[in-house]
């Protein structure tokens, strides 16, 4: 049903011809009429779609509408533009839909692929008709892919080009000379398709791998490509192309008759196709274009349009995306079925009997210790069809054997597993042998991630451990996690196995050193596997996950001590990451507080390793050397404290030791000058700053003295930590940190940490660490130099940072989909000397600039700043004091701080220029940071 009355349209075009004698006027009027008919037809179809949400129905109606427009357009051209009284045999034409349009489906934003089929001997009439039709289609603003060929040309090019061959495989007659189309179908089948199935299948599978690697290898990427991604529509198309080419069938129902699918599997194919088409059509409608990536911006809107409401534990968008990923998994299952069937078909091609027998003897071998499985063509498969019926433990044993021998599982065996899932019941979950096999698999030093992913894809893992099954295909609606929860857990397990096997010594030297000393290895593996298993519940997933771990660990044979360790790790799996990224690790209270959480060195070691696995498994680029360094520092300081090896000399002794350590490195300093330099710094500087930075700072300040300037800077790159340090020395200024943050924001640099000191004679010594942007140090140093120059110009009042930052502050794509209420925590217990302000909310360019401006406006000294970003969420911590160096204890003032900082999150792009944009602080102005309290 196209929604277009073609006889009425043809009659209207004929009336226009009678009305307009001028050809140009007639053409304009005709194009307007076609445009109106197309627009009205599309509007009616999309109105129906908004009501019934029928994806395939919408796509089919749009294709049918397109057919009618093309037929009417052809009639317009051959009747009114290039009429022929007596056409010859050479003056024939056939219009054929190919590609996606050939399947008689079109998404609202899709282009149309047309083949204009002409006789071998052509005349100018055919070319003129094609040209006239195309010009009108372009005037209608349609995206048209077209070719004009003879049958011979089609056959010749199809043999040479797999893309053309695939397009012609789905050729569909629209109008014109049917004999030409029939000849094309016959020649394609006889000269191209016959005896080339193996070549076609190999090409399509290779093409699929390339496409998937380009779109994202995992089908569980949280912003999937509905068309090109793994488990998307293109995968379904590929399955049908392969089946159609190999089995020579013309429709889906024939695949059941051919034995490729069971009736149940074909129904699953149809459900997947309908759902994916529904989502694709919705995506085109809400985006207003041919958008194929289901980004966060569209997920919430489409979920609402499709009626996914919020449940007790999942939001509507999370329920919608879980459905999407389950469909993607089903598409993967169907892919395996088709591949197995095609492979079996190829293996049964006629051959000499003795050759076949010898081949089978060579390629089939028994597996020691079991008569239920064997190796066929270097893959594990079942020896008999009843192996799971006789012994359901075999549903676990199959994957354990595959891991033991390092071999893939035959698709036939996987298909039999999916047909036997009902045997994964309570009795199997309570079976000691099944649970022993699972723990052996989980803690394998070979490839547990691969083995468990196979179990998950087959549906066994979620049934054997229902707690895990609840997070299968569950996405977290945020920009931080790149994968669904189950995929994240499996990737984390794979990273742990790499550390355990010593394959990541360069990336994680400390973790590789610690792993062999871990006593609770089984507990660590189980904790990594379960740490997010309670996601999607209403309560805190760490606490709920710990309770689940206590239930599951004894089932898998863990001792009470191992069970306690597993539950503790799950409950505290975020503690180390949060502390390292949002607290001042030079503050003794930070280490003492975290040591109280860690409790023992064994727990600390396990938590360190789990934290690395957790962060790395979030997604590409999330882990970096800076985070690694923070974790190593926190581990080392905490392990020292827990081990009772902390220095027993007092604070003054440690300050003197730090100063004496510096003296040999500064040979250019005369004794009197060195003594004067040492006296400039307050004690916290000597306690917190590493030797390399102390050397750098001394020389930088000396340069400032000698040259008599009011500003000096230094930049240093650190490839291992993936950061660049920018150090600024200048007269102290109330808004210095804000100026630095603004210059970094306007230069596109992301600050991850800031250390701020003030000397006794009024100099500010600030070091900010920014995320590395370039691979080459020279490029990185130039970028940092430009930022440092921007800081100096801003301090001199030569540039207005507010305007520069506002120009950068266009809302990043995707973040508008998230609503995070700002959260401001005022904590006077986290530090002995400072109030810790932890602020969180939706991140945006220039946020740190705005926050530091607000803190300066509140007359607060900032001693250090620690910046963490989790996707769309910024979590920034500031160690502050009032102008006297005291903590902020007054409840009224704390409330003002909460209100001002909360409002700052809402003021994107609304930055008046600072009252003071440069120059040294006026006499009597408060210091931005430092003093004795720093």
UniProtKB/TrEMBL annotation:
EC number(s) given by UniProt: 2.7.7.59, 3.1.4.-
Activity modulation: Uridylyltransferase (UTase) activity is inhibited by glutamine, while glutamine activates uridylyl-removing (UR) activity.
Chain intervals for the UniProt region annotation (Disordered): 907-934
Keyword annotations from UniProtKB, A to Z: Hydrolase, Magnesium, Multifunctional enzyme, Nucleotidyltransferase, Repeat, Transferase
A GO term, aspect molecular function: [protein-PII] uridylyltransferase activity
Region span, Uridylyltransferase: 1-368
Catalytic activity: [protein-PII]-uridylyl-L-tyrosine + H2O = [protein-PII]-L-tyrosine + UMP + H(+); [protein-PII]-L-tyrosine + UTP = [protein-PII]-uridylyl-L-tyrosine + diphosphate
Pfam families: ACT_ACR9_3rd (PF24931), GlnD_UR_UTase (PF08335), HD (PF01966)
Occurrences of domain ACT (ranges): 725-802, 836-913
InterPro entries named among the record's database cross-references: ACT-like_dom_sf, ACT_dom, HD/PDEase_dom, HD_domain, NT_sf, PII_UdlTrfase/GS_AdlTrfase, UTase/UR
HAMAP family assigned: PII_uridylyl_transf
Family: Belongs to the GlnD family.
Function, in words: Modifies, by uridylylation and deuridylylation, the PII regulatory proteins (GlnB and homologs), in response to the nitrogen status of the cell that GlnD senses through the glutamine level. Under low glutamine levels, catalyzes the conversion of the PII proteins and UTP to PII-UMP and PPi, while under higher glutamine levels, GlnD hydrolyzes PII-UMP to PII and UMP (deuridylylation). Thus, controls uridylylation state and activity of the PII proteins, and plays an important role in the regulation of nitrogen metabolism.
Protein name: Bifunctional uridylyltransferase/uridylyl-removing enzyme
């Amino acid at each position: 049903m196209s929604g277009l009355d073609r006889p009425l349209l043809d009659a209207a075009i004929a009336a226009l011809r009678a009305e307009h004698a001028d050809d140009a006027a007639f053409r304009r009027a005709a194009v307007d009429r076609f445009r109106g008919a197309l627009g009205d037809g599309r509007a009616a179809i999309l109105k129906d779609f908004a009501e019934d949400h029928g994806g395939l129905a919408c796509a089919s109606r749009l294709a049918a509408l397109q057919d009618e427009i093309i037929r009417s357009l052809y009639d317009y051209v051959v009747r009114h533009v290039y009429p022929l009284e007596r056409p010859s045999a050479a003056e024939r034409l056939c219009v054929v839909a190919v590609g996606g349009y050939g399947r008689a489906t079109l998404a609202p934003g899709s282009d149309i692929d047309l083949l204009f089929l002409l006789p071998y001997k052509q005349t100018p009439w055919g070319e003129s008709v094609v040209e006239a039709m195309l010009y009108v289609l372009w005037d209608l603003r349609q995206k048209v892919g077209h070719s004009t060929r003879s049958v011979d040309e089609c056959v010749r090019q199809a043999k040479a080009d797999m893309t053309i061959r695939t397009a012609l495989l789905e050729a569909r007659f629209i109008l014109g000379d049917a004999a030409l189309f029939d000849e094309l179908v016959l020649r394609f089948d006889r000269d191209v398709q016959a005896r080339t199935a193996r070549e076609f299948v190999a090409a399509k599978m290779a093409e699929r791998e390339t496409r998937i690697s380009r779109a994202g290898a995992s089908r569980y990427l949280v912003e999937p490509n509905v068309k090109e991604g793994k488990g998307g529509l293109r995968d379904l198309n590929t399955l049908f192309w392969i089946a159609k080419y190999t089995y020579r069938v013309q429709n889906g129902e024939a695949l059941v008759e051919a034995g490729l699918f069971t009736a149940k599997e074909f129904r699953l194919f149809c459900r997947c196709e309908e759902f994916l088409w529904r989502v694709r059509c919705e995506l085109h409608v809400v985006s207003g274009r041919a958008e194929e990536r289901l980004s966060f911006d569209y997920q919430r809107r489409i979920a609402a349009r499709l009626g996914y409401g919020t449940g007790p534990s999942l939001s509507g968008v999370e329920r919608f995306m879980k459905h999407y990923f389950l469909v993607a998994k089903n598409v993967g299952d169907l892919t395996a079925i088709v591949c197995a069937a095609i492979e079996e078909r190829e293996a049964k091609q006629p051959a000499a009997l003795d050759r076949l027998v010898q081949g089978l003897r060579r390629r089939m071998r028994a597996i020691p210790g079991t008569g239920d499985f064997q190796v066929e063509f270097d893959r594990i498969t079942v020896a008999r069809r009843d192996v799971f019926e006789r012994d359901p433990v075999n549903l676990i044993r199959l994957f354990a054997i595959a891991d033991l021998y390092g071999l893939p599982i035959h698709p036939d065996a996987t298909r039999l597993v999916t047909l036997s899932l009902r045997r994964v019941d309570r009795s199997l979950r309570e079976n000691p042998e099944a649970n022993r096999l699972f723990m052996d698999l989980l803690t394998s030093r070979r490839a547990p991630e691969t083995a468990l992913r196979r179990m998950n894809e087959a549906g066994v893992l979620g049934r054997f451990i229902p707690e895990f099954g609840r997070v299968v295909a569950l996405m977290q609606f945020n920009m931080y996690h790149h994968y669904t929860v189950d995929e994240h857990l499996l990737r984390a397990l794979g990273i742990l196995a790499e550390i355990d096997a010593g394959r990541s010594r360069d990336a994680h030297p400390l973790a590789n050193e610690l792993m062999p000393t871990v006593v609770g290895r089984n507990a660590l593996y189980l904790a990594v596997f379960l740490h997010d298993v309670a996601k999607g519940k209403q309560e805190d997933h760490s606490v709920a996950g710990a309770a689940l771990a206590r239930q599951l660990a004894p089932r898998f044979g863990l001792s009470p001590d191992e069970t306690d360790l597993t539950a503790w790790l799950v409950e505290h799996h975020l503690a180390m990451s949060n502390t390292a990224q949002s607290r001042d690790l030079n503050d003794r209270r930070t280490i003492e507080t975290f040591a109280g959480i860690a409790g023992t060195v064994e727990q600390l070691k396990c938590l360190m390793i789990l934290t690395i696995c957790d962060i790395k498994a979030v997604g590409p680029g999330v882990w970096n050397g800076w985070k690694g360094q923070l974790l190593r520092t926190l581990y080392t300081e905490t392990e020292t404290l827990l081990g009772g090896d902390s220095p027993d000399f007092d604070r003054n002794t440690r300050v003197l030791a730090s100063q004496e350590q510096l003296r040999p490195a500064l040979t250019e300093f005369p004794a009197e000058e060195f003594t004067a330099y040492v006296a400039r710094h307050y004690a916290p500087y000597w306690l917190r700053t590493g030797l390399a930075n102390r050397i750098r700072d001394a020389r930088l300040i000396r340069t400032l003295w000698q040259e008599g300037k009011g500003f000096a800077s230094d930049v240093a790159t650190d490839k291992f930590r993936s950061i660049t340090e920018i150090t600024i020395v200048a007269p102290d200024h109330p808004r210095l940190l804000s100026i630095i943050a603004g210059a970094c924001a306007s230069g596109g640099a992301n600050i991850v940490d800031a250390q701020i000191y003030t000397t006794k004679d009024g100099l500010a010594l600030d070091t900010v660490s920014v995320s590395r942007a370039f691979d080459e140090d020279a490029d990185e140093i130039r970028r940092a130099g430009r930022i440092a120059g921007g800081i100096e110009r801003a301090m001199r009042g030569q540039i207005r940072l507010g305007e520069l930052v506002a120009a950068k502050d266009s809302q990043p794509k995707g973040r508008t989909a998230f609503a995070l209420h700002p959260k401001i925590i005022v904590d006077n217990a986290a530090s002995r000397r400072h109030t810790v302000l932890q602020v969180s909310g939706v991140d945006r360019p220039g946020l740190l600039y705005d926050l530091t401006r607000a803190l300066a406006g509140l007359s607060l000294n900032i001693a250090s700043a620690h910046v963490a970003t989790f996707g769309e969420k910024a979590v920034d911590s500031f160690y502050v004091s009032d102008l006297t160096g005291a903590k902020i204890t007054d409840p009224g003032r704390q409330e003002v701080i909460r209100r001002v900082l909360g409002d700052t999150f809402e003021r994107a792009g609304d930055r008046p220029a600072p009252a003071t944009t440069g120059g040294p602080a006026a006499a009597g102005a408060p210091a931005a940071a430092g003093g004795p309290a720093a």
